[in-house]
Amino acid sequence: MKICVLPGDGIGPEITAEAVRVLNALGLKFEMEEALLGGCAVDATGNPYPEATQKLARAADAVLLGAVGGPKWDNNPREQRPERGLLGIRKDLGLFANLRPAVLYPELANASTLKPEVVAGLDILIVRELTGDIYFGQPRGIEARMVDGQQQRVGFNTMIYSESEIRRIAHVAFKAARKRGKRVCSVDKMNVLECTQLWRDVVIETAREYPDVELSHMLVDNCAMQLVRNPKQFDVVVTGNIFGDILSDEASMLTGSIGMLPSASLDEKSKGLYEPSHGSAPDIAGKGIANPLATILSAAMMLRYTFNNEAAAQRIENAVKKVLAQGFRTGDIYEAGMQRVGTREMGDAVIAAL
User: 291-340, pLDDT tens digit by residue?
Assistant: First the structure.
């Protein structure tokens, strides 16, 4: 089991170190090697996704990533921005399916901005298509055109999806649902956008191969409302790139802290890049107070989806549940009466629970 570890920038090295310690505590045989991605790679090589990292990532079975970016690189040319490294590795590895669970642990119900009775027991998986849609469609740009008899600047982007792109992400969602509550809600805007009418049609066709999974449909604006009104109605939500970008961030905040949320980005053979949903948090980098649980839970997703080791994945997840039940809290999820700990201490607690 070859893992390419990319600590990245900001708090990335601190949180990935704890995830690596937890993986090693399982007693399984991993082969791990570190490389540079993001701002640290720009500083060292001038390239946010250098050739050495490309070779290592391609040869690995899975990639564990911390976080990239920070204000230090905000004024860099576009091609030398840390985020270009993240986009580069996603494209290079063909990672088209983004899986982002939003799970609210009972002990953290008070951390959510919604009433505890609305979110207690929340367990949603958002499956977002990652390589198509309006983010990548052509033509795109800003140009001068005649509008209402005068020359004006006009910005334009193209929303585009092929049948094969929709079908492959639908398969990911249905297969994931089989391991969960066996319900898929497909989110689109078919009443306005022809592109998403095709989305709905193809998802319905694909659903015939999964008679044991219940399929429903929802318009994206209604889904955004329902996530706040009654989030527990959802099991697996599958949607396109731009809708998934927005809805997954909305769902993440139902849980109270983005510091608790893992994610996976998979290719067609379930090779994946695993990372926390949060950013590099440069304001707390080096202070030893970042929450490593999202990264540790991302490692659990790696065991589940790439290495097909459900038992080991559940061991990590159960250890996290135990640690929260014992009252351990990093600053982002701390409440009075709990035991406040730092990054390393939280890792120690998870390993002890294992």
Answer: 999 999 999 999 999 999 999 999 999 999 999 999 999 998 888 899 99
CA distances for 140 relative to 131, 156, 160, 188, 285, angstroms: 16, 5, 12, 22, 37
Residue 324, CB half-sphere, CA atoms under 13 Å: how many? 18
Cβ-based neighbour number of residue 152 at 10 Å? 11
Q: Are 343 and 290 in contact (CB under 8 A)?
A: yes
Q: Sign of the C-alpha dihedral, residues 297, 263, 15, 94?
A: positive
Q: Which domains occur in the chain, in start order? A: 1-96+267-354 (3.40.718.10), 100-133+160-259 (3.40.718.10)
Our answer to whether residue 283 is catalytic in this structure is no
- Residue 221 annotated among the catalytic residues of the structure: yes
Q: Dihedrals φ, ψ of 38, to 5°?
A: 90, -145
The one catalytic residue among 249, 322, 334, 348? 249
Residue 258, pLDDT above cutoff 80: no
Q: Is 245 part of the annotated catalytic residue set?
A: yes
Catalytic choice (245, 267, 322, 348): 245
Is 9 annotated as catalytic?
no
Name the pTM for this structure.
0.89
Interatomic CA distance for residues 204 and 207, integer angstroms:
5
Q: For residue 217, which amino acid is it?
A: H
Q: Is 135 marked active-site?
A: yes
Other CB atoms within 10 A of residue 241 CB:
22
Of the listed 61, 72, 91, 135, which one is catalytic? 135
- Tell me which H or E stretch contains 55: helix 51-59
